[in-house]
């Protein structure tokens, strides 16, 4: 039986909230060091514990291996919650950081993409596909100007056994950043991260994403068809053709022909010693920040207006079609509030058991639906909805 011991951390402030987890500060009592702690209510994970075990397995394989990837420092459980303790990144999200700058040039975007792509190359060399690369999962370690940008949130990542040439078939990720092969369920692997990097690069250069549409259905159809343009023209006049070509290479529809992370790093936009840019009349590089902020802020206002309507419609639809989904929705906030109330220093903890071979195999074979989006209540609700559709068909 696992040994129960006093918790070595005390509870700090709540930092954020996800679909089924909250993130809190955790202060190590002995050292006084601060961590970001992902707190997951066990009731929300019943029957799906392998998802957390898989995240731990991925992070144990790569933690402390690359300066631009968050490290998992500790993981344990209480009678109510699972706890995962990570680096506390205090520098904010990628795009917030850009918008706070006084200016922002194509060379800045290239530096960011180069750094992130090197971290992606490391992940792929370790046999790991992230599957949820997006600006929200790119954080800065500190507020310092030269702070490292970090890849975070490995909840959807998988360890790929290259000798078995395994292809994953789950529909997972954030819709606007998902590759065509994910939607088509033809099997996917590391190339999905390259596609996501193409979307991120487009976003970093213009302030909006290439497949942004009025509905998720239209967005999915555009992604499958590779239907995007470098428009409106005024947003792209200040971006070099070399940068546009880099985006095109990453957004190659056929994953077989998509470049690897190593191949991307050899592209002229990232590899050339001299930065690429479109000069102004005075010969200086064009400042991309005004257009990037304008596009980003306009989309945020639109999303804010549309979100509540879409979310309410989806909740009503799921509640009507699937009793389990309604029950999950009803209990979701209650369970997360329970997690938030637990005081770590008052709790007794046990360290999670190592995975058995059967559990690891279950994590590899699972075909969960794990779509993260602004209008989605999370993977459980999505799976419940799809289960209902399967019954009707």
TrEMBL record:
Can you tell me which residues bind ATP? 38
Sequence ranges of Basic and acidic residues compositional bias: 356-368
Gene Ontology MF terms in the entry: ATP binding; protein serine/threonine kinase activity
Q: Which Gene3D superfamilies match?
A: Phosphorylase Kinase, domain 1, Transferase(Phosphotransferase) domain 1
Q: Where is the Protein kinase domain?
A: 9-270
- Is Protein biosynthesis among this UniProt entry's keywords? no
Record bears the keyword Nucleotidyltransferase: no
Which residues, if any, are the signal sequence? none
InterPro entries the UniProt entry points to: Kinase-like_dom_sf (IPR011009), Prot_kinase_dom (IPR000719), Protein_kinase_ATP_BS (IPR017441), Ser/Thr_kinase_AS (IPR008271)
Give the UniProt keywords, A-Z.
Answer: ATP-binding, Kinase, Nucleotide-binding, Serine/threonine-protein kinase, Transferase
- Protein's UniProt name: Unplaced genomic scaffold K443scaffold_137, whole genome shotgun sequence
Q: Could you tell me which species this protein originates from?
A: Laccaria amethystina LaAM-08-1
């Amino acid at each position: 039986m696992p040994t129960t011991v006093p918790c070595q951390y005390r509870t700090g402030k709540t930092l954020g909230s996800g679909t089924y987890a909250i993130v809190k500060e955790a202060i190590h009592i002995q050292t006084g060091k601060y961590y970001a702690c992902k707190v997951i209510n066990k009731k929300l994970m019943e029957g799906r514990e392998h998802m957390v075990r898989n995240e731990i397995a991925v992070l144990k394989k790569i933690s402390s291996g690359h300066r631009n990837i968050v490290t998992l420092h500790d993981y344990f459980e209480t009678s109510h919650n699972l706890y995962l303790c990570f680096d506390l990144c205090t520098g904010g999200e990628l795009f917030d950081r850009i918008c706070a700058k006084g200016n922002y040039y194509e060379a800045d975007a290239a530096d960011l993409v180069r750094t992130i792509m090197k971290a992606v190359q490391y992940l792929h060399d370790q046999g790991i596909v992230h599957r949820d690369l997006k600006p929200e999962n790119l954080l800065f370690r500190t507020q310092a100007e030269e702070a490292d940008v970090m890849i975070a949130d490995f909840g959807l990542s998988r360890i790929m056994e290259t000798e078995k040439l395994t292809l994953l078939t789950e529909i997972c990720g954030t819709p606007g950043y998902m590759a065509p092969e994910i939607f088509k369920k033809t099997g996917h692997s590391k190339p999905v991260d390259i596609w996501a990097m193409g979307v991120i690069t487009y976003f970093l250069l213009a302030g909006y994403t290439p497949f942004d549409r009025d509905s998720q259905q239209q967005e999915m159809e555009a992604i499958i068809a590779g239907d995007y343009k470098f428009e409106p023209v005024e947003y792209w006049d200040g971006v070099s053709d070399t940068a546009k070509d880099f985006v095109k290479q990453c957004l190659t529809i056929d994953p077989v022909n998509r470049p690897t992370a190593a191949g991307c790093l050899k592209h002229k936009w990232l590899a050339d010693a001299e930065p690429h840019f479109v000069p102004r009349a005075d010969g200086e590089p064009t400042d991309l920040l005004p257009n990037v902020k304008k596009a980003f802020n306009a989309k945020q206002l639109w999303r804010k207006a549309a979100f509540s309507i879409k979310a309410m419609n989806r909740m009503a639809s799921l509640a009507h079609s699937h009793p389990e989904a309604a029950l999950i929705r009803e209990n979701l906030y209650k369970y997360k509030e329970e997690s938030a109330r637990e005081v770590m220093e008052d709790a007794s903890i046990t360290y999670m058991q190592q995975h058995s071979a059967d559990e690891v195999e279950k994590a590899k074979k699972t075909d969960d639906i794990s779509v993260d989006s602004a209008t989605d209540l999370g993977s459980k609700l999505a799976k419940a909805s799809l289960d209902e559709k399967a019954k009707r068909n």
